[in-house]
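Memo to structure team: turn this sequence into structure tokens by end of day. - J.P.
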Amino acid sequence: MRDILNEIWSTARRNKLRTGLTGFAVAWGIFMLIVLLGAGNGLINAQLKQSNRFLSNTMVVFGGQTSKPFQGLKEGRNVELKERDMDITEKEYKGIVDDVGAQYQRSVTISKGQQYINLTMAGVYPNHTKIDKLEMLYGRFINDIDLRDRRKVLVLSNKQAQELQSNYRALLGQYVNVGAFAFRVVGIYKEQENGRASAFTSYTAMNAIFGLGSDVGRIEFSFHGLPTEQANEEFEKAYRGRINASHQAAPDDESAIYLWNRYTQNMQMDTGIGIIRTALWIVGLFTLLSGVVGVSNIMLITVKERTREFGIRKAIGAKPWNILYLIIVESIIITTIFGYVGMLFGVAANEYMDATLGHNQIDTGLFKATMFVDPTVGLDVCIEATLVMVIAGTVAGLVPALKAARIRPIEALRAE
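Reply from structure team:
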């Protein structure tokens, strides 16, 4: 085997250009496949990270503005959701709707001693922690007793709490000032990196302080039993018509209220991700195929150029199998080495993308979105791509090698 390796090395040194072209075709094909798949996975992972910020089977209802006249009323009227809309949601759709809550937001200043922060405080129901997937670090979230007794309790994010007090865990049970009111800190949650964090209190406390009356800001609820997009569309149409009716708006006026259905959004996203994955693989495979064609052409030329050499080998006693073995081993070694190089450069390129684009965020106004997350490709994909190149190079060289191995020495020696 050592003699074979020495002979292959000697041949590669004599034919540097040919060996370099073969290796470049292999390395480039694998490099592009890994980079394309890595970039695609980075975009997909970013979208999945955004969609996983919320519980999927939830819906948020916002008040809007009428876009058409109805029952003698002009268009352009503001629609503000009321407590009666919550009752409609909970009672008339109890076969589908699970937990119903509301959220009302106000900008406030929270202070403790000389420290203060300006932020958005949201009055919510206990179901909000499930809907927005809040991870509690210490203490608890708003509960039913807080809601019933209109307790002035406060749940802060870890970063908000740290601005008020360096040892923020010690804030639990202490009172802070929210404007002119004292609120007791009962919980601290983990602030998401891509979110715009709010402080939370009970909805009823918010209502009592700011005099909201029957206004509820926005309604949020979880639901079940709507497995398809068609079922969701039918529910949205019926629900919109019912809520619009309570505000004397046209049943089909889609501007009167806005429905954010996270379940259909996730289904559409899954469909889009599937299309992206398929497109990436198609482009990647064609890129790999171009490398295979390049390797195959070079191997064909290589064997043809060495026909005279093979004739000399046969003339001095070499058997057909010896020639075949030499070509196969040479093809495997060259494609494996350069395939590994291409794989390393592809992984390095993905790491570079992660270190640069992976830390860029876009501020949407509601939250900060990372557009590129973890652009990696599985080791199995890298190995399989390299094996494809190895096999392609071997097969491409095997066919003319069989012909060269069968040719008579005198004919091979006449070859130019």
